[in-house]
Structures are given as C-alpha cells and as structure tokens.
Amino acid sequence: MADQRARTVAPVRGKLGVLCVGLGAVASTFIAGVENIRRGKARPIGSLTQMGTIRLGKRTEGRAPLIKDFVPLADLKDLVFGAWDPIPDDCYTACLRAGVLDRHEHVEPIAEFLKSIKPMPAAFDQNYVKRLEGTNVKRGKGKRDLAEQLRADIRDFKTRSRCDRLVIVWCASTEIFITPGPTHWTLEAFEKAMDANDPSIAPSMLYAWAALMENVPFANGAPNLTCDFPALEQLAKTRGVAIGGKDFKTGQTMVKTVLSPMFKARMLGVAGWYSTNILGNRDGEVLDDPESFKTKEESKLGVLEYILQPQLYPELYGGMYHKVRINYYPPRGDNKEGWDNIDIFGWLGYPMQIKVDFLCRDSILAAPLVLDLALFFDLAQRAGLAGIQEWLSFYFKSPQTAPGLYPEHDLFIQHTKLKNTLRWLMGEEQITHLGIEYYHEA
Ligand SMILES: NC(=O)c1ccc[n+]([C@@H]2O[C@H](COP(=O)([O-])OP(=O)(O)OC[C@H]3O[C@@H](n4cnc5c(N)ncnc54)[C@H](O)[C@@H]3O)[C@@H](O)[C@H]2O)c1
C-alpha cells in the first residue's frame, strides 16, 4: 500500500449517460440486462466490473476486494441510456425483434422503461452497410453537417438526461472494409475529406469525431476502422479523451486466444485451424455481404499470427493454414454455433486433432462487455488517461495499439494487464507472479 503513488481519479458524481451507436441485438440486450439487474431480477454474469475481484499485495495477505469496490466506477443505478439507429424501433421492439431475452421474464416486466428509449436519427449511408435499410436517418448537406448534428445530439442528450458524464459505445453494424489512407493520417486531411464528402470517411468515423469534439470517450465494438488511425488518435490525445477498439471479443476468437497460447506454451505445432460459424441474426445478415465480411475476417484472422509468431517458430507454425467462415443461417437467430477444427502436431511430428463446438449466444456474451467498457472508459476518462486504452484490449478481437506496437491477444495476458493497470491507478503494487519472496522469507 502506497497511496501517495495513486493517480488522481476524479470522483464518480451524478449520472453517467451511455450512448449506444446502434440499437440492435447487442445494445438492447445490454440495456434490458442492466435494468433487470437494477431491479434485482437477474445477476450481472459475464461482467468483470460487477463480479470480478482483484488480488492486492502478497498471496498471504488475503486481500481480494471486488473490482467495483476497489476502483471508483459508476454505479448501475446511475446509468442512463440513449442510442442512434437508422431503424426507428424503440428498445422494447428491438429486444423483441432480436429475440435474445425471454419475453415474459426479462422484457415485458420492464416494457415501459424499454419503450422510453427511442433511437435518435442515425448518420447512416447504405454504401457502408449494404444489407441494411433504414428510415430513421439524418439528412444533411454533407458529412461535416451530419457530424455536427451528432455533436448537437450528444450535447442535447446530456442536458435532457441531466448527465454528469457520457460515454459512447459503437454497437452498430459492421461497415465495409476500408484501408487507412492519406485522408486518415492527419486531422487536417481528415476534416478536409469530411468537407469534401470523401468516400474514405465512413459514418462510424463521424460518430467518433463528434464524440472526441464533445470530449466523450469512445469504444468501438465492431471491426470498422472508425477511430483506429493517426488523425483521430491524435485528436483524442490533444483533447484528452479515451478511445479504443476494435470488435468485441466474445465467442470463437475468445476461445482462439485461450487455446493458441496453450499450444505455444507447450511448443506444440499447428498445421491448420479451420473456423466456421452459423448465425441467423441481423449481424449475420450484414456479414453475409462480402465487403462487411472482409472487415470481420481481417479482425478474426489476425490473432493467430500474433500469438503463435510463425516468424520465431517457423517449424511449428510457419505452414499453418488458417480459415474463418461466417455463414448466415436464419433458423439459429442470435444463437450462433462456432466450430473449430484444429490440426496440431506433437513429439516427433505426430498429428492430433481438437474440435471445439461452441453453442453460444452472441448478444448474451457481448452485453456484459458493453457494460464493462462503458464503466472502464468512464474511469479512464476520470483518471486523465487520454488516447488509446490498450489496457482494455481484454475486450477486443483486434486491439488498438500505439503506432509501432503489435497488439497483445492472449486473453490472460490481457487480463493481467487490465488488473495491473487498476493496481497502478490506485497506487497498489504490481503483481508479477515472481513469488520468490515467499521462499526467501521462509
Ligand atoms: N458477440 C457479438 O454479438 C459481437 C461480437 C463482436 C462484435 N459484434 C459487433 O457488434 C455489432 C452489433 O451486433 P448486433 O448483433 O447487435 O447487430 P444488429 O444488426 O442486431 O444491430 C446493429 C444495429 O446497428 C444499426 N446501425 C447500422 N449502421 C448504423 C449507423 N451508421 N448508425 C447507427 N446505427 C447503425 C443497425 O440498424 C442495427 O440496428 C456488429 O457490428 C457486430 O459485428 C458483436
């Protein structure tokens, strides 16, 4: 304990507004879930901020408070929700349409609350999400104008809902694949391109820019480029705002980032890894478009290369064949099935196989991540941590990092990094797992 080394974290005061871009399956499951939890009707399972503990000091000290008692996080009762969506459904209708939660147990009892959350008109352009049509869309003179309208929405929401602070989480559809180019290098070039309605400026970038200009932290739950480029990273730094992404790490990729470190730790080879998914929700339909799928594919493919490091272990991973498929299959709705076939090899090169069949629920896995990200981004902002929040890469498939740094994908390294950051914030010792002191003292 050396509290004098703790960073200054502004206290949690008043309400925290959580604005979701997109009010589809994930966002509605998150909002309805929080309300059920607040009413004592369900437990926040899957949320590290609500259920996780953190060890402090030596193993012999027996100090392991809940994370939410250790760091000053907004209380669930102080959360207020808002959203944008090109589809005009309120949160009640969005929940029913998504079909994730049991209507009688978790939707009808809070119907009035859910109906009160109506999406604001979206900055939406079908060129970036081909398989979606919406009527609740902003009209404007151009991209700059739309972005200014988003800024006005943010300010109005804050006043209307009497919030002390805001945080924005992108829970909207995956946009088409965009490679960063000259319009993304500097803020000047970016704003110029916005003025010129350049196609390299996607709607998600307008939300991110608006958030930064209003000093609101922004977390990106989809694989779109959004704020993962120098112009907006610089803007986040200069304005002192927390940003991060990309793509919630929930199902198959979470499993991948647990199994692949195991192979590497034991120096087992991987000849091939075939991953396929069937899912039937709107996300699945959007990802059925090859351009949106390309964005998702890039995000899902990267993890193995980084974790297994074929350049360091060419014999073990140099020839690995990695394939990821997503198949839209309506009968399953939000209940995704993710199959993995992994061909590994061991001692003297003998082959073995591992099969994983994860019958998961996409939005049930994602909702607690939205909650944790909202609370941790708000914490980061109050702690003065500006720019990319790499310590929250635990939550992302494709973590945003400082230029020149490769992302850390191993789930348990990410978990350790997150907890050590919380210890560092509060002036507690880092836990290195060295442990030699227990034996020397003995
Ligand atoms: N486990 C998971 O569910 C998971 C994991 C990782 C990433 N994601 C990503 O999270 C996002 C949301 O997933 P979902 O299942 O809720 O999808 P969804 O299709 O149910 O909801 C997305 C919503 O975003 C809206 N939208 C699209 N473009 C918009 C814009 N420009 N502005 C505002 N709203 C817009 C759509 O109308 C839709 O209602 C997707 O991009 C998905 O790839 C989900």
Structure description:
This protein has 442 residues and is an alpha/beta fold. Helices cover 39% and strands 14% of the residues. It contains 17 helices and ten strands. It has helices spanning 25-38, 48-51, 67-70, 91-98, 103-107, 111-115, 143-160, 187-195, 203-213, 230-239, 252-265, 282-287, 290-308, 314-317, 362-382, 411-425, 436-441, and strands spanning 16-21, 79-84, 165-170, 218-220, 242-244, 269-279, 321-328, 337-345, 351-359, 387-388. The strands form two sheets. A six-stranded parallel beta sheet has the order 2-1-3-4-5-10, sandwiched between helices. It has a four-stranded mixed beta sheet with strand order 7-6-8-9. A hairpin with a 5-residue loop joins β8 and β9 (351-359). α1 crosses α15, α7 (143-160) crosses α9 and α11 (252-265) runs parallel beside α13 (290-308). The radius of gyration is 22 Å and the shape is globular. Nicotinamide-adenine-dinucleotide binds at residues 21-26, 84-87, 98, 122-124, 129, 132, 134, 171-174, 203, 221-222, 247-248, 250-251, 281-283, 286, 362-363, 365-366. The site of nicotinamide-adenine-dinucleotide has 36 residues, from α1, α12 and α15.
